[in-house]
Amino acid sequence: MYLNDVAALSLDLDDTLWDFDAAVRGAETMLYHWLLQHAPLTAAVLPEPASLQQYRQRMAMLRPDLVDTPARLRKASIHEVLRLAGEDPALSERAYAVFYAARQQVTFFEDALPALEWLSQRYPMAAISNGNADLDMIGIRHFFSVILFSRDLGIAKPDPQIFHVAATALDVAPAQILHIGDDWQLDVQGALSAGFRAAWLVRTAQGTTPARMEGAADAWLTLNNLHELCLMADAHEHPVCGQGSASLSLPSYFS
Ligand SMILES: [Mg+2]
């Protein structure tokens, strides 16, 4: 089986454990109301919470150098909103803190926490993210022995180097680490290029196209949820996270 001599796991965070868009939209709504209250002139440039997303996208085009550091990009876009509205741009620091705290209020996919609980009792685990989560605020730091963010390292997925840093920190050979993530390029291709194994988490049907196009489907796993991974890791147990999973149909190359 693909998992036979896997000695450690690494996991992506956004869209692997929680719905990233929902978290960011929620945080933008909080930020929007905070701005209207503390910098009321912003109402003129922010017709709705989604306007904050548009300013962020515009800033990403103007300042591609900020795209790899989400905090700086977001702060720059808030700064711009305040400046355009005739409010004090210095408020952007406080406004960002409101956004950042709200962005950590994630809604986990229902399989995520039971799977983290179960898998972390069996494997050392690393988190590898290009995003801006705070695992202490989210409350899942204890599941991971290694936590790597591109914002801290200056190396982002799919660069194999960030996976090599994870392997060194886990003290496990790349070939014995399974990386799990939702993004075909960042997670699957990145992990494979670093000599890791890879599990592509496809929670929605439309995501399956690249795997079919690339062929060689036995080079990686495709998972629909994290319960499947628990089941594959030890189908003989009846894990907490595997409850109800007896009815899961696994692709034939899993067995
Ligand atoms: Mg992701």
What report would you give on this structure?
It is a single chain. The protein is of the alpha/beta class and 255 residues long. The chain has 11 helices and 6 strands. It has 2 domains: 8-18 and 107-254, Rossmann fold (3-Layer(aba) Sandwich); 21-103, Up-down Bundle (Four Helix Bundle (Hemerythrin (Met), subunit A)), CATH 1.20.120. The chain has a 6-stranded parallel beta sheet, with helices on both faces. Helix 6 links the parallel strand 2 and strand 3 (146-149). It binds magnesium ion (MG). Residues 12, 14-16, 181-183 line the site of magnesium ion. Magnesium ion (MG) is lined by residues 12, 14-16, 181-183. This is Hydrolase. GO terms for molecular function: hydrolase activity.
Short description:
The protein is 44% helix and 10% strand. The chain contains eleven helices and six strands. The protein has helices spanning 20-38, 50-62, 70-85, 92-103, 112-120, 135-138, 150-153, 160-170, 184-193, 209-214, 226-233, and strands spanning 8-11, 125-129, 146-149, 177-181, 197-201, 221-223.
